[in-house]
Amino acid sequence: MAAIVNAANAQLRTGGGVAGAIHRSAGPGLAAECREFAPIRPGQAIITGAHRLPNRYVIHCLGPVYGVDEPSDELLASCFRNALKLAEEKGVESIAFPAISTGVFGFPLQSAAKIALKTVLDVLPDFTRVNHVRFVLFSDADLQVFAETLSACANA
């Protein structure tokens, strides 16, 4: 994948979950680059180099805290739209997303999957460069929810 998406925190610092794994693997250069952009707002995305990662870019998105950052649905959709827009602007052909906001931010997985997949399917036809989108999920149960949701979107 040319770009991976980091489910970031507002300060773009290392932490737990996806953000922690990305920062540990990318090395200290990523943290230094992120400091230039912090803080970010829910729904916002920024792009950095990938440093020691094998990817070209890391796109950092701050997903909404469910029920706190409102409107949560629209802010989550904005994460996906904004990440894809940045990827397109940089000529990225492939991008991998986690299930943004479904961990400690409390977004219900089924709702998040529907928003993520619908947003990607809605905006992808507008782009000429991004042509491969992958979701990298935490568990087989998460994968099952995304697969069922994608099937429902395709049949709608």
UniProtKB/TrEMBL annotation:
Domain Macro: 1-154
PANTHER family: GANGLIOSIDE INDUCED DIFFERENTIATION ASSOCIATED PROTEIN 2-RELATED (PTHR11106), MACRO DOMAIN-CONTAINING PROTEIN (PTHR11106:SF27)
Name of the protein: O-acetyl-ADP-ribose deacetylase (Regulator of RNase III), contains Macro domain
Organism (species): Nitrosomonas marina
